[in-house]
Amino acid sequence: MKINISETSNPHHGAYTRLHPVVASGRELEHEDPEAVIIGGMVLDIHATPSVHANPGTTTPGKVFYMQGGVARNVAECMSKLGAKPYMISALGFDMAGNLLLEQWKTTGLSKEGILKNKDIETPVVCNIFDVNGEVAAGVASVEALEKYLTPDWILRFKSTLLSAPVLMVDANLSGPSLEASCRMAADAGCPIWFEPVSVTKSRRISTIAKYVTFASPNEDELIAMANALSGSGEFHPLKENHKKDNLSTESLFQILKPAVLVLLEKGIKVVLVTLGSSGVFLCSKGGPSCFKIPVAKTNRNNFSGQLYNAVMHNCPPNCYSGFSEHDRSNRVFAVHLPSLPASVVRLTGAGDCLVGGTLSSICAGLDIMQSVSVGIAVAKAAVEVESNVPSAFSLAVIADDAKSVFCHAKVLFHQSML
Amino acid sequence: MKINISETSNPHHGAYTRLHPVVASGRELEHEDPEAVIIGGMVLDIHATPSVHANPGTTTPGKVFYMQGGVARNVAECMSKLGAKPYMISALGFDMAGNLLLEQWKTTGLSKEGILKNKDIETPVVCNIFDVNGEVAAGVASVEALEKYLTPDWILRFKSTLLSAPVLMVDANLSGPSLEASCRMAADAGCPIWFEPVSVTKSRRISTIAKYVTFASPNEDELIAMANALSGSGEFHPLKENHKKDNLSTESLFQILKPAVLVLLEKGIKVVLVTLGSSGVFLCSKGGPSCFKIPVAKTNRNNFSGQLYNAVMHNCPPNCYSGFSEHDRSNRVFAVHLPSLPASVVRLTGAGDCLVGGTLSSICAGLDIMQSVSVGIAVAKAAVEVESNVPSAFSLAVIADDAKSVFCHAKVLFHQSML
Fold first, then answer.
1. Which residues form the Carbohydrate kinase PfkB domain (chains A, B) (predicted)?
2. Which CATH number do you get for residue B243?
3. Does residue A61 lie within any of the structural domains?
């Protein structure tokens, strides 16, 4: 999943990130507080970019970058850099990619007990060759080890960890049976579930688990695929090229996507966060604005999490949307648009995962969903301004200021009966 | 450089490699005998192959392989598995690719003193995505670190090592100044030089060093590029598609390539080995057949090298070509065609480098050039039958038998005055 943040030149960008002291590092924290559980892919991303125009069929001079990736891994790394210590459940081999991912994982300070290591695993790798315009010219994904080795058996070993978790995130790299086992385990533990669709193809795996899911974070194409999978129809169609979201008003875009959003809400998903790249996000839920209140039972506000909580509570006071009627909430849908932030884009990869990581960290710190998504968008902006999927560190002051800017420009789009 | 060996189904292949005891491993040998010096690239090859037909512009499910590559590294590894202990001079970074290459290098038992390690080096990587037919769909080569860090200064540190070397191999990944420094150093030490052209573009670097070079091993396209570079003209043209070598008799192909070969010989290269893939090789030299006699002053016949020497001397008796007149040898050119061997092809990469490695190992053991190239072709055949660039081990019996088959089918093509 990607979020595109509009490219706006920011001449002060270099100085601006350096001037603020870096206050967050997962390594510095040691505690036994409730922490999120993240189940899904740890993937090595190999990105090759030619320096000159490539002739198809030949090897062109250029640069090759290795990046730690995988949706679940990116979310967990992002959360660790925002002061959380999520518990990762994944699978790696002992090959070059697995060794690199595991070495780098150690620097996050997060537990590696949930990461299955097995010599037979071909560590998941995605190898993409870009063209000079930054588009994928050719790409190969070797990620089937996740489906083969990240089994219900392995996942169910960590049931006790889930009992104290404020939230479980699963990415759709898991097989259908593993997604179901994870969701049933979380439901038994009374733990809310965040579903990250990964890709259009894998997003369809929502079909058997929607009733368990509290949050889902599709982009617009994944939203359409999920609505088709859940309704068992092919009635929803991707946005046409001549209809692309950049040419539409926010309201028109929402009108186009609303029927698909309603399918997800009707099938039991409590909160749908539709990511729209440079157009921001739609945050949609059944019920009135109170459905965006603090959604988790267990919160954790030590060190950076506590500082983030205080800064955001100051910058983005809750209850802004308290004027709406809460009457008959079960039959109502509520939707808000939150804008993206101007950014000096270096690379778009990882931004969607940082949006999820920032939002989840804030939810775990006890912020409400509007506040949390505002933080998520601020964190995603920081991600597009660096080469790696997740920035090496975040500045609390910058995140809090950016979150405020998003929060203040949020706009209620829709508040009416679903009937 | 590639050699294609014709694909012939060999149902016994699996059993056939397993039945012969593996007698060679560089690790088992310890000695202080004269050894070849190899200067050039150590490269990580990343090969990604989709499992299904790929749509351009998207990521497709498939497999990603990491292979130790680089022409010079492949040649050195191949020689180590044939009992030689070549001295490698190269440059690596401390990144993922550099760590992998260095770890694997340790398993060869070869010295790593000549390998410059520097944290600023982006270890050379070639990333290729293939299509379902095995052709390169897109590829990026990031190898400029070799030109930047493998400097004359670094190379000249190893002058004393070269004094006892039977032969120096350089690959054309080196910059022009580094190639010249290497060649002058070898010439001062009285050491013959083997030039491996690497690619059509890099093969042109022959232009300033031809007078120093004893052996060169171009494929037909590299031969044309080298002839154009050396003659300062563009008069030589690559084989046309409708003229491709598969449709030509060996004699016709030689007649087409002969003028380019003559340019290389006239400019001072003593032996030109033109590799023709499944069509075998042309071995060309000025002078009569005696120019193929033992070409190096220092030989090394311990352990596997000695066994290889004895087996090949038995299977491929020298002096087969002694009937020719040695009269007026300085103005004559002598050319022999050596055929390829049927093989069960798994992957063609590395075969050309193993041809060079096999030939150089044999030369260092004291075999003559006809015998050595026969061994080289046998070693190249073993290389195409495995996934990696260099097989994990060679069977002496198989190599000796295959070399005999090549040697017995060699055919003199051309023996006439160059005037």
1. 36-293, 332-387
2. 3.40.1190.20
3. yes
CA A52, A57, A59 angle in degrees (round to 5)? 45
Largest CA distance in chain B: 65
Q: Which residue has the tokens 């066994």?
A: B307
| A136 inside 8 A of chain B by CB | yes
- Could you give phi then psi for residue A396, rounded to 5 degrees? -55, -45
pLDDT at A2: 39
Residue B419 has pLDDT above 90, yes or no: no
Range of the domain at A318: 21-417
Q: What distance in Å separates the CA atoms of residue B91 and residue A374, rounded to the nearest whole number?
A: 47
**pLDDT band, residue A263 (cuts 50/70/90):** very high
Asked if B59 and A100 come within 8 Å (Cβ–Cβ), the reply is: no
Contact B141 A61 (CB under 8 A): yes
Give domain status of residue A1, yes or no. Answer: no
Element (H, E) at B201: helix B200-203
Residue of A nearest to B127 (CA): A48
Q: How many domains does chain B have?
A: 1
Minimal C-alpha gap between A49 and chain B (Å): 7
Of B94, B96, B103, B132, which to mutate for an interface test with A (greatest number of A Cβ within 10 Å)?
B96
Among A151-160, A291-300, A389-398, which is the least confidently predicted range? Answer: A291-300
Rg of chain B on CA atoms, in Å: 20
Interface predicted TM-score (ipTM): 0.71
- Per residue in B112-130, pLDDT (tens digit) is 999 999 999 999 999 999 8
A353-369 per-position pLDDT tens digit: 999 999 999 999 999 99
Residues of A in contact with B127 (CB under 8 A): 46, 48, 64, 127, 129
Beta-strand pair A115-117/B281-286: unpaired
pLDDT digits (tens, 9 = 90+) for A365-410: 999 999 999 999 999 999 999 988 999 999 999 999 999 999 999 9
pTM exceeds 0.95, yes or no: no
DSSP H or E stretch at residue B406: helix B396-408
Give the residue-averaged pLDDT of B251-260: 93
**What is the pLDDT confidence band of residue B310, given thresholds at 50, 70 and 90?**
very high
Closest CA to B14 of B342, B340, B341, B344: B344
Q: Judge whether B401 and B315 are in contact, CB under 8 Å.
A: yes
Q: Tell me whether residues A59 and B128 touch, CB distance under 8 A.
A: yes
CA distance B158 to B392: 29
CB contact under 8 A, A66 and B142: no
CB proximity B103 to A under 8 Å: no
Provide φ and ψ at B265, rounded to 5°: -65, -40
Largest CA distance in chain A: 65
Is residue A144 domain-resident? yes
A268 against A349, higher pLDDT: A268
Residue A236 lies in a domain: yes
Exposed/middle/buried for A14, CB within 10 Å: 0-12, 13-18, 19+? Answer: exposed
